[in-house]
Design brief:
Layout (H helix, E strand, L loop, with lengths): L3 H19 L6 H8 L3 H8 L2 H21 L7 H18 L1 H7 L19 H16 L8 H21 L1 H9 L3 H11 L4 H12 L2
Helix pairs in contact: 1-2, 1-3, 1-4, 2-3, 4-6, 5-6, 5-7, 5-8, 5-11, 7-8, 10-11
Protein name: TetR family transcriptional regulator
Keywords: DNA-binding, Transcription, Transcription regulation
Pfam families: TetR_C_33, TetR_N
Length: 209
């Protein structure tokens, strides 16, 4: 039986599948309802608007991202952990490009682009960076600073790289000047106070090299 709870979850799952397999243009009330096996009214009676359904999809995406980031787990080297966290974050974006773009307001599924306070929905995923940066500061690997500010520096670099990669620009430029993510990470960590040789050792430890 189609209960309110199961209908809510089913519509979210359907919209998420359409987003991931067919792109943001496929996420319309009519298409979601048709794929789910209900009338268009089901979307509006359950969520009130298509935008609210998109927000529910995004919330599920952030939940999945947060779970992957939390699965990284700490080691005795906080810089290794930050590198692994960045790789996990980038890996999620690579596997779910349409979802990632919707999560961060870079696309507009069904014409609904998240802006303003809506973008704070993913703050918990960002906070994972801050927790790891705080450990690196406490260990003396990074200079004393507000962990949230350091995390913002890191997230800006990782997110910017992901968006350039998804647009194809990073690959095009990389054929000319090179685009090694480990080198970029090394430069950022040194700028934040770490020793270059220590960063390189931490990156090698993350990959078992």
């Amino acid at each position: 039986m189609d209960t309110p709870s199961s209908r809510h979850d089913g519509l979210v799952a359907t919209a998420l599948r359409l987003l991931e397999t067919a792109g943001p243009e496929a996420v319309t009330a009519r298409r979601v309802a048709q794929e789910y096996g209900a009338s268009t009214m089901a979307v509006y009676s359950e969520f009130g608007s298509l935008g609210a359904l998109v927000d529910a999809v995004v919330l599920r995406g952030f939940g999945a991202l947060q779970a992957e980031l939390m699965s990284v787990g700490p080691t005795d080297d906080p810089i290794t952990d930050i590198w692994r966290l960045a790789l996990t974050y980038a890996g999620f974006a690579a596997r779910h490009p349409h979802l990632y773009a919707a999560m961060y307001g870079a696309s507009a599924p069904g014409g609904h682009r998240r802006t303003g306070d809506d973008l704070l929905l993913g703050f918990d995923a960002f906070r994972a960076y801050a927790d790891y940066c705080a450990r690196a500061i406490e260990a003396g690997r990074l200079r004393p600073a507000d962990p949230l500010e350091v995390a913002l520096d890191l997230w800006t670099a990782v997110h910017g790289r992901i968006m350039l990669d998804q647009s194809g620009l990073l690959g095009a430029v990389g054929t000319v000047v090179g685009a090694d993510p480990a080198r970029a990470f090394e430069t950022l960590m040194v700028g934040l106070g770490d020793d270059r040789d220590l960063v390189r050792a931490s990156v090698r430890a993350a990959t078992g090299a």
